[in-house]
Specification:
Layout lengths: L4 E7 L8 H6 L7 E7 L10 E4 L2 E7 L6 H15 L3 E5 L3 E2 L2 H10 L8 E10 L5 E3 L1 E4 L3 E4 L5 E2 L12 E3 H6 L12 H11 L3 E11 L7 H4 L2 H18 L1 H18 L6 H10 L2
Parallel strand pairs: 1-2, 1-5, 2-4, 7-13
Antiparallel strand pairs: 3-4, 5-12, 6-13, 7-8, 7-12, 9-10, 11-13
Helix pairs in contact: 7-8, 7-9, 8-9
């Protein structure tokens, strides 16, 4: 990839060889493409701090404390600034990238992009290709709905997911980096919100990538109770920062969520929602 990019991949309990992201994107990138891998796994997976893997030249950073995404991205941001990169490309381990995506990114960055464009984001579908994940619109109460929009600079205020998104380095630096209040969940929605709060814009790509999101299915089976509690805290913080109306709408949503969770085998889910309701 171009020197304009600084690429960061966050791993958790998965090797590079197992990662759909590496398997797919590795087919298109040039040999020795620099890639910062921030590993949040419980145990170190690679002894070397710099090594070659397929077409990537890996800089490997391990943190057994599992600080989440925001600290990993902030570490990568400082490296991107040191290298003079214009864009940061965010990757997670479970994304399937296409040749169309890679080719479009290369073409886009060969053209002048207006300075007020702070993010370039692809269209994202589920791995099965039957549901649109991104772009979305974030409404009051953290109601997130996919939207179909034309490619180019979006006239709508949109949001999306981390993986596959390019963020302008000087924009992220201007807002003091990635908020560590959102260590994992809602971090993507937070920086998209900041883009529009600071009168910046988002460019929607024409191409599509494919993502596996556990929250799309039965999350009792795919998300642990502790993980769900973490999600709840992030949602609550996000809506609280938007104001009282957004908070009230979120609490109404929690009521309906509790009714669904009463059918779960593990009562801990509805109890966690109930506690959050009265927070």
């Amino acid at each position: 990839m171009s020197d304009q990019f600084f690429i960061v991949l966050v791993l958790y309990k998965m090797s590079l060889s197992e990662s759909k992201t590496i398997q797919s994107l590795g087919k298109f990138v040039s040999n020795n493409t620099p890639l910062l891998v921030f590993d949040n796994s419980p145990t170190r997976q690679y002894e070397e701090s710099v090594f070659q893997h397929e077409n990537f030249k890996i800089q490997y950073v391990f943190d057994e404390s599992n600080p989440g995404l925001s600290k990993a991205y902030n570490f990568a941001l400082q490296k991107a600034i040191e290298r003079g990169a214009i864009w940061m490309l965010l990757l997670d381990q479970d994304t399937h990238f296409t040749a169309d995506y890679y080719d479009e990114v290369v073409r886009l960055l060969q053209k002048p992009i207006p300075n007020h464009v702070a993010a370039i984001m692809p269209r994202v579908q589920s791995h099965e290709g039957d549901s649109l994940i991104s772009p979305t619109q974030m409404h009051s109460g953290a109601i997130c709905r996919p939207v179909k929009v034309a490619s180019g600079i979006s006239k709508l205020a949109v949001s999306g997911i981390n993986s596959g998104t390019l963020l302008r380095v000087n924009f992220i630096n201007s807002i003091s980096g990635f908020s560590e209040k959102y260590s994992l969940d809602m971090l993507d929605h937070w920086y998209f919100r900041m883009i529009y709060k600071t009168a910046h814009a988002v460019y929607i790509m024409n191409s599509c990538i494919y993502q596996e999101l556990s929250v799309l299915g039965n999350y009792e089976a795919t998300i642990s109770l502790s993980r769900y509690q973490q999600m709840l805290r992030s949602e609550f913080l996000f809506v609280k920062e938007e104001g009282i109306l957004s908070l009230l709408i979120f609490k109404c949503r929690l009521l309906f969520r509790i009714l669904k969770q009463l059918r779960f085998t593990n009562s801990g889910y509805w109890q966690a929602s109930l506690r959050q309701l009265f927070t």
